[in-house]
Amino acid sequence: MSAHDDAESNPGAPVGPVPDGEPRSRPYRHPAAGWGAARSVAEVLLRQHSVVEGARAVKRMNHEDGGFDCPGCAWPDDLKGLHLDICENGIKHVTWEMTPKRVGREFFSAHSVTELSEWTDHALEDQGRLTEPMAYDPDTDHYVPVGWNDAFETVGRALRELDDPGRAAFYTSGRLGNEASFLYQLMARELGTNNLPDCSNMCHEASGRALTASLGTGKGTVDLKDWEVADALFVLGVNAASNAPRMLTPLAAAHRRGARIVHVNPLVEAAATRTIVPHDFTDMALFKATRTGDLNLRVRIGGDMALLRGMAKAVLERSANDPRALDREFVDRHTAGFAEYRAVCEATPWAEIEHQSGVGRADIRRAARIYGEADRSIFCWCLGLTQHEHGVDTVREIVNLLLLRGNVGREGAGPSPIRGHSNVQGNRTCGIDHRPDAGFLDRLAGACGIDPPREPGLDTVATVEAMHRGDVRVFVGMGGNFARAAPDTAYTCEALRACELTVHVSTKLNRSHLVHGRRALILPCLGRTEQDRQRGGLQSTSVEDSMSMVHLSVGMKRPASPHLLSEPAIIAGLARAALPDSETPWEWYAEDYDRIRDTMGRVLTGFEDFNRRVRLPLGFRIRQPARELVFLTPSGRAEFSAAPLPDVVPAAGTLVLGTLRSHDQWNTTVYSADDRYRGIENLRTLVFMNRADMRERGIGDLGPVDITSTARDGSTRQLRGYLAVPYDIPRGCAAGYMPEMNVLCAIGDQSSQSNQPIMKHVPVTIAPSAG
């Protein structure tokens, strides 16, 4: 049986495209980016028939004064070289959206939902842009055209007829702009629910909770200027070359000016070695690569906290003989809990640190020495640290280490979480939060004249469970591909199918449209690359990047269809239909987004005078009190955490599997079956393994294997017929691509600290395929 024949464990067709050749695996030995990225971009432009439009996009996309504002990842815009601030994945993202292909009523008339369910996810998205609203017809098993007013009334009636507003859930991915995010949460709260699950629940929830507990702010405290002057950069659980390619530029610049760079990851990724920055024309012409790292520590999956504890232990040991190793003045004046933390570090034996981290004491001391010799250090991290049971404790351990040497609240130093989608951080800032704080709700009530609910709502996992039980009957998704992004694929699909109504606001066809409730709507929206003209003229939308910079984005391209509506206009239409007697001026807001921003300025802390400040060059940065040594914690100080080390070493015969993205992929969108930086061609249904672990199990190179996970409740999930690829990964560890491997992560296996699905620490057994 192949990997995708097991309908119970892995519903639906394969995610990636059908391979055009035999699978191959070979080591990648080239610099990141460079001519490989240039060639990949050319191939994408040709494949999407966007050579001319794609080239124009590189020169002018979404910035009023020219330049490329990427609607993909959340890495900040370059403060100096804006007009060349581009990357391979950003161009892929834009051309995938700008495709001339169209999906209209003729397409849906020709293909039933049952037929489309057998297509690959790649084939579905590759059909092109959605052009008009569609409603599912259960009698014919086809989507059929529906007018916008009828679509809005369908949703409005379903919401009005609910006996409890908590029976509806309003999800958003990170693509939604700030203005639409604000309107979306306003609609949900005026309806009477805080059921606002979002993609942050699955990615950086642990970061927000940890930073809030330690520093009183849920965000990082550094910006790009700090990256430009830091003496040391520590990059943990980040695959920058694929997930934030523009990060390669500051990494290379840091190395050139003498900063030390340490990478911590179970896999040595391409970004941790060398790069040729594509817009550095001299380096491109001379094939001149720049190093992007000085030390690579191949930590065991989940062992990052132990490694950080070891670094802190080394710093404290050194302070006994060198008082400069510890910033005692900073610790005494600005922190709480230092004595308890020092005691737990001293009580943690080196043997346990080595065992849990999988890294030897000498290498940990090398990293600690780099940290101790740097006057200013930045620690950045991504999902490799957060999607674990102990993700909150691990991020707090980063802050502990920073506090020891006063690396918070000053230039060139601090915590720097790396977010994924372009506005995932902005969504949360603008109110997409199932656990809103009382101050925000008070300001919302005062500015908008509503009585918002005070009890917490449902997060992503809780929403899936509630849909599965039948407690949530209406699901509305703003962007994303919920059926593929969520854990426990079979369970999530069953949950969506149990709904009375599912509604997806999208630009392209995806799997979630085919895994629908009894009734279903597809509402097509404008893309970020497209002109958004309302009654008030050409509109702009704002986004917030990973470093709290808020700037405007203005689409430049003609819309893919005259029937598309903007996300604020769609939300306004839904809200008016669901709340016919509402005094909120929904239509007035949708006519001119400056009006939305004026209201946001009265509600959101740091958004005062929003309309003026967002029009400054590159926008404005939201104030971070911790950067000014103002800690909004119970003690009024930065808080050390003295959590014990977790046991992350797998039991005998078991491996720990972490999910990851391929290089030719953005979130759940897969562009090809290749993964250039890991040397993979024509293959996605694979598992990366240590060769010794393969040999111990009698598995040969590219040998077929069955992968079985056992959940906390004892249930099992399985993928069959995957191919084992030998890779430089620590013993006891394995890795494979999401979303295919999301099936192995049980819905109930979520962190008790953050409620995130534990997608980076799945216990599995792997054996030669049973056939």
Unreliable spans are 1-12
> What is the molecular shape?
globular
CATH topology of the largest domain: Rossmann fold
What portion of residues is helical? 25-40%
Order of strands, widest sheet? 8-7-20-19-18-9
Task: Characterize the biggest β-sheet.
Answer: 6 strands, mixed
Q: Please write the CATH class name of the largest domain.
A: Alpha Beta
- Output the structural class: alpha/beta
Mean pLDDT: 91
Total strands: the figure is 35
Count of alpha and pi helical runs? 30
Taking all Cα atoms into account, the compactness measure Rg is 25 Å
How many domain units?
A: 3
Q: What is the terminal-to-terminal distance?
A: 6 Å
Bin the strand percentage.
15-25%
What is the CATH-assigned architecture of the largest domain?
3-Layer(aba) Sandwich
Structural write-up:
- By secondary structure, the chain is α/β, with parallel strands linked by helices.
- It folds into three domains: 24-28 and 650-768, Barwin-like endoglucanases (Beta Barrel); 102-201 and 423-618, Rossmann fold (3-Layer(aba) Sandwich), CATH 3.40.50; 205-417, Dimethylsulfoxide Reductase, domain 2 (3-Layer(aba) Sandwich), CATH 3.40.228.10.
- The chain contains 30 helices and 35 strands.
- The chain has a six-stranded mixed beta sheet with strand order 8-7-20-19-18-9, sandwiched between helices. A six-stranded mixed beta barrel has the order 27-34-31-33-32-35.
- The relative contact order is 0.17.
What are the SSEs and their pairings?
Layout (H helix, E strand, L loop, with lengths): L23 E2 L6 E2 H14 L3 H9 E2 L5 E2 L19 H10 L4 E2 L1 H6 L2 H4 L4 H5 L3 E2 L3 E4 L4 E4 L2 H13 L7 E5 L5 H14 L13 H11 L8 H6 L2 E5 L3 H4 L4 H9 L3 E5 L9 E3 L4 H6 L3 E2 L3 E3 L6 H16 L8 H7 E2 L1 H10 L2 H8 L3 H13 L3 E5 L1 H4 L4 H14 L9 E4 L6 H6 L8 H11 L11 H10 L4 E5 L3 H4 L3 H9 L3 E6 L12 E6 L8 E2 L2 E2 L2 E4 L4 E5 L13 H12 L7 H6 L1 H11 L6 H4 L6 E2 L16 E2 L15 E6 L4 E2 L2 E2 L9 E2 L4 E4 L1 H6 L7 E7 L5 E11 L6 E5 L24 E7 L3
Parallel strand pairs: 2-12, 3-4, 5-6, 9-18, 10-11, 10-16, 11-14, 15-26, 16-17, 18-19, 19-20, 27-34, 31-33
Antiparallel strand pairs: 1-30, 7-8, 7-20, 12-13, 21-22, 23-24, 24-25, 27-35, 28-29, 31-34, 32-33, 32-35
